[in-house]
Give the backbone structure.
Amino acid sequence: MNVVLYLRYSSDAQTEQSIEGQRRVCEEYCRRMDYTIVGEYADRATSASHDTEKRLQYLAMIRDSAARRFEGVVVYKLDRFARNRYDSAIYKAKLARNGVRLISATEAISDSPEGIILESVLEGMAEYYSKELSQKVRRGMKETALKGKSCGGRVPLGYTLQDGRFVEDPVTAPIIRELFDRYVSGERLSDIGADFNGRGYRTSTGRQFNANSWNSILTNRRYLGIYIYDGIEQPGGMPRIIDDDTFQRAQERVERTAHKPGHGKAAEPYELAEKAFCGLCGASLVGESGRGMNGTVYRYYTCADRKRGHKCGLRPIPKDWLERAVAEDARSLLTPRMIDRLAEMAVKASQDARDADPRLPLLRQQ
């Protein structure tokens, strides 16, 4: 009988050896049974209890069964195939319609009525184990959170971990205080970011500050000393970096500037607002509109400094013309060679950010 192997391990905590071990057992079983292995499907670090759509090799195996190139799928144990009865029933039925059997290499299950009961018991036990494990993990994470210890995830800029607890980082906490002080005093985030980048400061991921860096920092209530995790909030659960008054003033300014200039003033958005800049003075371009004598609405981009009454000579630019020109220029740049170059730049930027992460030596040591 022609068969394929389906191999899976469920989390990054397990190693590639889990796949290798499953393969050895399945291959030995196939030799004993005189089965011919004609293919293999393996999903790495993928749970069987949910997110079946992420098990790409699993779904490919189900699709390929329609070609009837194999008559059996051999798994190490039934829980490698599915850990809930719904998925097990649905996908076994699909295999059966294509004339394919599901075979466990380590669980002797016959086609008799008794074998059907045994298979149902094993599937029920697998689902029970999966749900019980999930409950234990959630319970353990909650206890860890109640003790004020880190439950994983990214450590906010300004903090570091010591014995699993958040402590103030003497290197990056001053960056957070300076950001809030300058922001509430009225400085533009673009100017603050340019200054920070020029001084070599980086975000918690090791990247340069940009327009997307600020909101998660300026609205993060952890800087008030509030430990937050999955609905748990503990005032005083971590060191305070920002005082209440400064934080509140920052929230008020964030709220005032929540909408980009030009957004909400017209039936259509200004796609280049704060992405295009004046060629004369360097200020950002913002959207504006006006109505002509015949009632027609005209939309433009104009220099923010000119709009504020400063002496910039840039005349308003028709919205449709500028957006079309930018789109056409961008499209003309996306040649196959340029796409490859952009991909190389993205990979290099990712590697540079990783290597520049000040936490990397500590993580490697741990």
User: Anything to note?
Assistant: Confidence is low (pLDDT under 50) at residues 261-267. The longest helix spans residues 113-146.
